[in-house]
Amino acid sequence: HLHTQVEKGPTPYLTNTNTLDPVKVLKGMGGNTKGGNFKGTIVKALKAAGLPTTAAYINAWSKQIMTESGGNPNAIGGTDGYSHGRATGLVQVKPTTFQAMKGKGMNDIMNPLHNLVAGMNWAKHAYGSNILGYIGKGHGYANGGIVNSPQMAWLAEGGFSESVISHDPSMKARSKVLY
């Protein structure tokens, strides 16, 4: 559960009378609060990617959109330190992945339909018939990964402890203990 509160005024922390509706604030910033605003695009993308257009797939991709970009088709994410470029667009596809997985004639990574099709093609390749076991589940780096820039993280999301091991040479002894 996440509580979101947006306040206005010179001293919003002193009272609770300036509280704004966060949904309206987000919509006013160009985002949305549900992946459902892209339902038509999701259905088109599922068809183009050769995936079922069932409610389960539509809902999973709606959730994935919110996990990846918060519903912002112009989102530009960070880099993982590799030369694959920045995660881009509605489902945060890297440029090299987009080039390899894009649909025929779909050359605009910022176009929500093109971005979704490339993301869906990648997911089909990565997860095969178990695609719904991953998409829309908010997985992120639950299976591990390397973080190269400061960021907030969600750890132990599966209810199991996780280790964060630094690559900083000055932390070598502690890293060995953790490993």
SSE order and pairing:
Layout: E1 6-7, E2 19-20, H1 22-28, H2 39-48, H3 55-69, H4 95-101, H5 112-127, H6 172-178
Antiparallel strand pairs: 1-2
Helix pairs in contact: 2-3, 2-5, 4-5
Kindly describe this structure.
- The structure is a single chain.
- The protein is an all-alpha fold and 179 residues long.
- Helix content is 35%, strand content 2%.
- The chain has helices at 22-28, 39-48, 55-69, 95-101, 112-127, 172-178; strands at 6-7, 19-20.
- A two-stranded antiparallel sheet has the order 1-2.
Task: Describe, in short, the structure shown.
The protein has 179 residues and is mostly helical. The protein has helices at 22-28, 39-48, 55-69, 95-101, 112-127, 172-178, and strands at residues 6-7, 19-20.
Number of strands: 2
The H/E string reads EEHHHHHH
Radius of gyration: 19 Å
On the 0 to 100 scale, the average pLDDT is 78
Percent of sequence in beta strands: under 5%
- Spatial order of strands in the largest sheet: 1-2
How much helix, percentage-wise, in residues?
25-40%
Alpha-beta classification: mainly alpha
Query: How far apart are the first and last residues' alpha carbons, in Å?
Result: 31 Å
Q: How would you sum up the major sheet?
A: 2 strands, antiparallel
- Tell me the number of helical segments per DSSP (H or I, 4 or more residues long): 6
Q: Looking at the structure, what is the overall shape? A: globular
Q: Which stretches are low in confidence, meaning pLDDT under 50 for 5 or more residues running?
A: 29-36
